[in-house]
Write a structure and sequence with these properties.
This protein has about 160 residues and is mainly alpha-helical. The protein has two domains: about 30 residues; about 120 residues, Cytochrome c-like domain (Cytochrome Bc1 Complex, Chain D, domain 2). Helices cover about 45% and strands about 5% of the residues. It contains six helices and two strands, in the order αββααααα. The termini are far apart.
Length: about 160
């Protein structure tokens, strides 16, 4: 009986080590540089974006975002700003939309890492955000949504995984 417990404990430790090793190797192999569509400096691409599913991202948008945001070229702002060409856009700068002071003064652009951080928990990224959305906990859901948002452009921002 003790042999079985010792074996399962070692097997669990082995599995944990292999999982951690795979993450470390992936991080070394895939440094994930990106360039915003407007020629801005390279931006970090979250690792989970490499396995993103654009079709699922569109479903996420329809389920979680469409009530407050439009996603078409020239579309109107609603409760939230239009998200066409959001990747690479200056933060807090969609014409005709009234942003919170925190978002207006944040500076920078909506790169992949910024969108990932914001979508994780908007209130942590911009404490005075008007967005009531609590965030997406699963990295795969965020990656899928970001990949879909990236597609909403005449010239989608590139990203590479090697």
């Amino acid at each position: 009986m003790n042999f079985i417990f010792a074996f399962t404990d070692r097997l669990g430790a082995f599995r944990a080590a292999v999982s951690l090793g795979a993450v470390v190797v992936a991080a070394l192999i895939f440094p994930l540089p990106a360039v915003a569509g407007d020629g801005a400096a390279p931006a970090e691409v979250p690792a989970h974006l490499g396995t993103a599913d654009v079709a699922n991202g569109e479903k996420q948008f329809k389920r979680r975002c469409r009530a407050c945001h439009t996603n078409t070229d020239g579309g109107p702002n609603k409760t939230g700003p239009n998200l066409w060409n959001i990747v690479g856009r200056e933060q807090g700068a969609r014409e005709g939309y009234r942003y919170s002071d925190g978002l207006k003064t944040l500076g920078g652009h909506w790169g992949f890492a910024e969108l990932d951080a914001f979508l994780t928990r908007p209130a942590d990224y911009v404490p005075d955000t008007r967005m009531a959305f609590p965030g997406l906990r699963k990295p795969s859901d965020r990656a899928d949504l970001i990949a879909y948002l990236r597609s909403l452009s005449d010239d989608p921002a590139p990203f590479s995984l090697n």
